[in-house]
Write a structure and sequence with these properties.
The complex is a heterotrimer. Chain A is α/β, with parallel strands linked by helices. Chain A is built from 15 helices and twelve strands. In chain A, strand 9 and strand 10 form a beta hairpin. Classes of the chains: A alpha/beta, B mainly alpha, C alpha/beta. Chains in contact: A-B, A-C, B-C.
């Protein structure tokens, strides 16, 4: 069985992205932000789209419902259930947005209208997509605020965004996003701007919501801790290409792409202190067109002529999941690394103590 | 290892600092409106500078036999009631306008920039300077000019002074806000940590970074100065006839409009074109002085 | 030996906002102390007060024994050779109108260190020490990446040979792989050059990597100060425990089995901090005295680590959350 077949057997597929490419026309020439990205999401699944800045993850997320500026051209296919999103007429697409696909962004202050009370903004979503009116709107809005863990929801409805803290605002954003019980929630760095204790609360809210409403979550992040905490599966992106796709355990313990390993080993870990942190020399390049080469070759320890002359395809790798690499890492090597990062570290010690 | 970082430096970063001027120029030249403005301004400046050489007649050369002639091959801009060649007068008048614009803007900058820097940098001076600037701003420009003319007598100098003084509050305001913005930047704090005195901070860190905005502000002030000079001369508060000035020419052309419309139209169009050119250039400069290069 | 940095009862109020409300801290020569806290903790303000980038409301700041908290700016300037700071935002921490060489050489020029030729040589040496190629000297900041700019900031801050470096979130605005490079660099420079470092951050992993001792700040006061190993294996203060438990670990198997302590509410405003222990409204194990009496930061346990909590006994045992 192929990966998709296995997955489909477990859960139906919700979102299929095939060969998604996004080109921007800029003053300095064309910029290829997303280069043939392909992945799938199942219903109720949390898929993390991971990469550093410039890898194209945010652009991918916005491209799914055509939320990109005018100078962007999108090609490829995006299917949500039965609908092909890139071909939908504008009015149908607007219905999809908000009702079937909802977004939560990083900066709630700029996503919320500062001159409207919170209740009105939630109400707007409810009125448009759920066709509620009058007292039903207020009731439902209060319910939603309670759902996302905001105390005294009745009072909060009358408040303005600037009166709320960052964490609260993000909860309001999430409430607005799930108001219509969307099938897919796209969260673009939802906790990056928040303190770590607040982040924990927001992640809990998203997790609870998923359990309760069955929403699938596409989580865009650069934080591997958040990935470990939330994701069922992970797609790693680099320079506009999807380069590895695996279940979360497999990604951390049996990753195949050298860049993935670079990312994982760049995070400080007590076990590896002696050697220092792994640095990946160079920077994520800005692509102007799709090269006939591996985009990571310039920074890769294992790159050879094959890598520099040929475009690698996304194919099943030695660990069993798709990877875009001519010389993927053998699973034995990566498991050894993670065994080191395993139980002996101090933080794990804390976890053990806490659970005892 | 680090060499690789530089190799993959993205396309936004090109060349060293010496080429920065060239880069700005290139960006400017890519904008057709800005190019138009630049051409107009350059032509106007050249015309003004070379007026003595290129004017077909001396500006006050009268020729009663050729009075009130419409534009012709002998007199491209026609002649006025005294037979004076209008083209020559416009050229010399342009020289006056440009001179007044340059000097008055210079005056505004010389007084306004230090005041703005002081206001932005030292909180206790801020209220004082801002109130002074606001007071000055509250004075209607013409009242100021009339007052000055009454004290020192109308002349080109008076006009320049009046316009320059009237332009000070705007410069103070812009400089002050730039100073406030830059003061909060980390690199200024870093300079303080490095041991910089206030003077060093202003000279090396604030002023160079405020420069872009000030340049743009100057190109905004210049057209206003030209119009200001024309107005003042028109009202008799500036340059005295028979010396040519676009404003004076407009004034003299008023009673003769029916007989000689070209006498008013041509200087008027001239003012308009030069002002428009300066505005377009200013806008173009603002865009060309790349915001990516300034911290936000 | 005189401590590189000694902070005594430092207070910084911005009008009604009590950003730093009585903090005492020591950093020994050559030591790296991590200062962690979330937004509203006052840690950045503390860093800026220590480097006299803003006036101090009250308290003392001693650099190598000399109290700099009350000195006039003029008297302070020559003393600034001994301490410097690097900031978080690579985009705004370098003067866009100055070349890298000028930026790095600024402290040398301002303190009149060496001859012109000597300064040029020193600049070249510093550029090399922070791992940048020499042609970077002629470049302008906008031509550099975020990671490169942070390296330049480090070179600048260290050029006059300070004995104390305050690093205010130096890696927070960088990508993960670049953070690694900069953290490695700071660690290496600190070992090679031997300066004391106050590493202010919210990133616990970075602190665990670099620091020897860790101070935890909450709403303007210190709640715990301990050695790195001790703080991360056996945190005593309830807030420290919550903080450590909230930070997700990049290991799904372990992250799944961890019990998380979720704190109710959010960090209150520093304008009207709660009475008694500032943490008590959110503390899962608070008792009545916590709302009435401010717990002093006192030494507990065998190694004399500091905790400000009524529920921690003198021998170091205290509440275990979750």
């Amino acid at each position: 069985m192929t990966m998709s077949e296995v997955r489909a057997a477990v859960r139906p597929v919700l979102l299929t992205v095939r060969e998604l490419s996004v080109r921007f026309r800029t003053e300095d020439g064309p910029v290829l932000a997303v280069d043939g990205a392909s992945f799938e999401m199942a219903e109720r699944e949390v898929l993390a789209l991971v990469g550093e800045s410039g890898c194209g993850k945010s652009v991918t997320a916005m491209a799914l419902t055509r939320l990109l500026p005018g100078n962007a051209s999108v090609s490829g296919s995006v299917r949500l259930g039965e609908q092909s999103l890139l071909e939908l007429p504008g009015s149908d697409l607007r219905d999809v947005r908000g009702r079937d696909v909802a977004y939560v962004f990083q900066e709630p202050m700029t996503s919320l209208n500062p001159v409207l009370a919170v209740g009105r903004q939630i109400g707007e979503v409810l009125r448009r997509h759920q066709h509620l009116r009058g007292a039903a709107v207020t009731r439902r809005a209060a319910e939603l605020l309670e759902l996302v863990g905001i105390p005294l929801p009745g009072r909060r409805l009358r408040e303005y965004p600037h009166q709320l803290s960052g964490g609260m605002r993000q909860r309001v954003m999430i409430a607005m996003a799930v108001a219509c019980r969307p099938r897919l929630l796209i969260a673009d760095e939802p906790t990056t701007a928040l303190d770590v204790t607040v982040q924990a609360g927001i992640l809990d809210v998203m997790r609870d919501l998923r359990a309760e409403t069955g929403t699938a979550i596409l989580l865009i992040t650069h934080d591997l801790g958040v990935v470990a905490d939330m994701a069922d599966r992970v797609v790693v992106m680099y320079a506009g290409r999807t380069i590895e796709e695996a279940g979360v355990d497999a990604l951390f313990a049996r990753h195949s792409h050298p860049y993935t390993r670079g990312l994982l080993e760049a995070v400080p870990n007590p076990q590896r202190r002696a050697g220092g942190l792994r640095e990946i020399p160079g920077r994520v390049p800005t692509m102007h067109d799709s090269p006939e080469a591996c985009t990571f070759a310039a920074r890769c320890d294992y790159a050879d002529e094959v890598c520099r002359r040929n475009r690698p395809l996304l194919m099943p790798g030695p660990a069993g999941h798709p990877v875009r690499c001519f010389h993927p890492l053998p699973p034995a090597e990566t498991s050894a690394t993670t065994a080191q990062t395993g139980d002996a570290s101090p933080a794990a010690g804390l976890a053990r103590e806490v659970t005892e | 290892m680090s060499a690789l970082e530089l190799v993959t430096v993205d396309s936004a970063a090109r060349g060293t600092g010496a080429a920065r001027g060239q880069r700005i120029l290139r960006r400017l030249l890519r904008n057709p409106l800005a190019v138009t403005g630049l051409v107009v301004v350059v032509v106007a400046v050249l015309a003004a500078l070379l007026a003595g050489a290129i004017a077909p007649f001396p500006p006050d050369h009268t020729d009663f036999g050729a009075a009130l002639r419409p534009p012709s091959s002998a007199h491209w801009f026609g002649t006025d009631e005294l037979g004076r060649d209008q083209l020559s007068r416009v050229l010399f008048g342009l020289r006056v306008s440009m001179a007044v614009a340059a000097l008055s803007v210079l005056l505004s900058l010389v007084v306004g920039v230090p005041l703005g820097l002081a206001a932005g940098f030292y909180g206790f001076l801020d209220s004082l300077v801002s109130r002074l600037a606001d007071t000055l701003l509250a004075f209607p420009f013409l009242v100021l000019a009339v007052g000055l003319a009454a004290i020192v007598g109308p002349s080109l100098g008076t006009a320049t002074l009046a316009i320059g003084v009237a332009g000070i509050p705007a410069i103070v305001r812009v400089t002050r806000s730039e100073t406030l913005r830059l003061r909060g930047m980390d690199f200024v704090a870093a300079a303080v940590a490095d041991g910089a005195s206030d003077l060093v901070l202003l000279r090396r860190h604030v002023l160079p970074n405020a420069f872009n905005t000030l340049i743009v502000q100057a190109t905004v002030a210049a057209p206003a100065a030209i119009i200001g000079e024309a107005v003042l001369s028109f009202l008799g508060l500036g340059i005295r006839p028979p010396a040519p000035s676009l404003g004076v020419m407009l004034a003299s052309a008023q009673p003769l409009f029916r007989d000689g419309p070209w006498l008013a139209v041509l200087p008027g169009v001239c003012i308009m074109v030069v002002t428009l050119g300066l505005n377009l250039l200013g806008d173009g400069l603002r865009d060309a002085l790349d915001p990516r290069e300034t911290p936000r | 030996m005189t401590a590189a940095l000694e902070v005594v009862d430092l207070v910084k109020h911005f009008g009604a906002v009590r950003a730093v409300d009585g903090v005492g801290l020591c950093v020994a020569a050559g030591e790296v102390v991590g200062l962690v806290g979330e937004s509203g903790s006052g840690k950045s303000t503390l860093g800026r007060c220590i480097t006299r980038l803003m006036p101090v409301t009250s308290g003392q700041v001693r650099i190598n024994g000399t109290d700099i908290s009350r000195l006039s700016r003029r008297r302070l300037r020559p003393l600034r050779r001994a301490f410097n700071i690097v900031f978080q935002d690579p985009a705004s921490s370098l003067n866009p109108r100055m070349t890298v060489a000028d930026i790095v050489g600024e402290p040398l020029r301002l303190h009149r260190i060496g001859t012109r030729a000597g300064r040029l040589a020193r600049i070249a040496e510093l550029i090399d020490q922070v791992g940048l190629p020499s042609e970077v000297e002629r470049r302008y900041p906008h031509e550099l990446s975020g990671g490169q700019r942070q390296r330049v900031s480090l070179a600048r801050a260290l050029s006059a040979g300070p004995s104390l470096l305050v690093a205010d979130e130096p890696t927070s605005a960088l990508d993960v792989s670049v953070q690694a490079a900069v953290l490695n660099l700071i660690g290496r420079l600190q070992v090679d050059l031997g300066f004391a470092c106050l590493f202010v951050t919210h990133d616990l992993a970075a602190v665990e990597f670099l620091a020897q001792r860790v101070a935890v700040m909450y709403l303007g006061v210190l709640v715990e100060v301990a050695g790195r190993a001790s703080l991360f294996t056996a945190p005593r203060h309830p807030y420290t425990q919550a903080l450590l438990s909230a930070a997700p670990i990049p290991d799904p198997a372990r992250q799944r089995t961890r019990r998380r302590i979720v704190l109710p509410g959010e960090v209150p405003s520093p304008i009207a901090p709660p009475a008694g222990c500032r943490f008590h409204p959110r503390c899962p194990v608070a008792v009545p005295i916590c709302a009435q009496v401010v717990p002093p930061l006192r030494p507990v346990g065998p190694s004399g680590e500091l905790v400000a909590c009524h529920l921690v006994d003198d021998d170091g045992t205290g509440p275990r959350l979750a």
